[in-house]
Fold:
Amino acid sequence: MTVSGAVVLQCTRVGKRYGGRRALHEVTVDLRAGEVHALVGLNGAGKTTLMRLMLGMIRADEGTVTVHGHDPFTMSARHWTKVGHLIEMPLAYPELTVVENLRIAGRLAGLSPAAARAAADRYTTELVLASWAHTRARKLSLGNRQRLGLAAALIAEPDLLILDEPTNALDPAGIMLVRELLRRTRSAGAATLVSSHHLDEVARVADRITVINEGRLIGTLAPTGIDLERRFFELVYADSEATP
Structure:
């Protein structure tokens, strides 16, 4: 793992357009080892677009993104083996079982066949998927499919973890499980970015909270602060009113 506090991922004045619409405006933000950084905003604020840029899924129109000093859009496969992510819908092969999907995820992350099998068994247990271990992914409920996506993201114990709304479709027990997993990855030294619009939940695990609105980073919130929700909406409404 990278030394705690070291910058693992850096975005500098990043911009992105879709046609005539600016999805991101000069965004500068970093992710640091041993830290959970929460990105919060209303639906459509730009959270997923920023995460996709960080993962090299799309290219920025302006500015730079680096992961361990590399451009994620052109970064070689070997540099991705310690990056875990869950963006929008969990990716799984529908005709394969939970265990088969996790073994493939482990192999793609550079694990040996034996290590991939062991990791698949471990995360099937930790994500409470044992009862569905041999169920095809297409037959899973939304909540269990989300658990499968989380297990795949964590399979190789990444040093960079990017999770877009990780508690989507989860019941209270699943939400508590995600909370504990995030605390564990932080203790292991991973740099973690979590997007959400549930302030009360991210405040329980975040070291930093950054607010995004209409593609702009507009401020920060202290995770231990009071009236987080009120402060969040004050920032968002003030920004929206000030923007033509």
Observations:
- Residues 107 and 116 are 6 Å apart (CA to CA).
- The two ends are 44 Å apart (CA to CA).
